[in-house]
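ingest -> validate -> predict -> emit
validate: passed (alphabet ok, no gaps, 198 aa)
predict: started
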Amino acid sequence: MIGIVDYGAGNLRSVQKALEALGRPAIVSGEPAALDGCDRLILPGVGSFGAGMAELSARGLDVYVKERVRDTPLLGICLGMQFLLETSFEDGTFAGLGLIPGQVVRFREGKIPQIGWNEVTALRTPLFAGIAEGTRFYFVHSYRADCAGEYAAAYTDYYGAYPSAIARGNAYGVQFHPEKSGEAGLRLLQNFCGLKRM
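emit:
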């Protein structure tokens, strides 16, 4: 069973539907008691970093996620990926979950937000098994990860290369939306469902 962490953000049902298309049962819940029975967790997200982290904290889900990731694979999607980092500078300075060293910064060039399909390269981690170098995924974001190369699981070029996937231990994150990225996105979600615990 896959648990989709509900902290009041939108876009949860589309992730659930993508998993159902793969034959992977998933529940959407903000209750730790319900998520306890799940062997994988997905942390989606749309909206602003500060507001999202405030909702996670108000529901006790920040502490819960940090405890579960010790022995449970976790996938952060879009804003959910950014939550995995230490600090965000979106409309202020906000602390993240700190599961992966790094920060969230705004794009300095180009049309903001980046909206649409873009290539993902320098693929690492089993998340990308069977996915070709340069495969295009769907992005919608104004802020991006800034972290050391050892935590970058893939890169995308948007007026300069930046980490579009990150990983450390059981914590994985992708800036793009796999649930909106066709067959490649479904393959990535399938790979996540098959990950071994670290």
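The mean pLDDT is 96.
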